[in-house]
Amino acid sequence: MFSGIVETMAQVVRIETEQTNKHFTLRNPFGEPLSIDQSIAHNGVCLTVVRIEGDLYTVTAMQETLRLTNLDLLREGDWVNVERSMLMGGRLDGHIVQGHVDQKAVCIEAKETDGSWYYRFEYDSCREMIERGYFCVDKGSVTINGVSLTVCEPDIQGNKGFVSVCIIPYTYENTNFRYLQVGSVVNIEFDILGKYLSRYAAVLGIKN
Description:
Layout: E1 8-18, E2 21-27, E3 39-42, E4 45-53, E5 56-61, H1 63-68, E6 79-84, E7 103-113, E8 116-124, H2 127-131, E9 141-144, E10 147-150, E11 152-157, E12 160-167, H3 169-174, E13 185-190, H4 192-204
Antiparallel strand pairs: 1-2, 1-6, 2-5, 3-4, 3-6, 4-5, 7-8, 7-13, 8-12, 9-10, 9-13, 11-12
């Protein structure tokens, strides 16, 4: 379980392919040791530490994870947002994030607005996905590349969904949002509470 409050960024130093899996080796940015089996969110994807070599650690993504996320697009030298799992009894500063990315989205607009940054994203949508909670609501929460953000200007047009977010300077400087541009692919996780409510309504046959 995560909060969507990214701790820092980690740089990919090595990528190895083994059958349909990919092993990503990154430099530990946390300033303290990691442990085997520890869960860390990478661009919002919960992955398990499987190997440690000095200040390097390795995580593995299976084929389904690579299909649903932007991890398959990573190259050596790229930076990813990272967050360790929440501590019990700590403050929930973002919102409840599972680290189970729902799908990819594409940045269709990116601009600076008087000191902050505005981004708009497009993702695939259909009635079945909406019934599973794969949509956004105004002033709700969404996780993009592991960052907990407040939704603005959500919309659905045909088979496409749209969501905009605004980034404060601190978030821009301390996450890989500063590398995003039009055409960049990001990971998106919709609010788990919305998924439960949507699924509940679908099972009961509640119509919009």
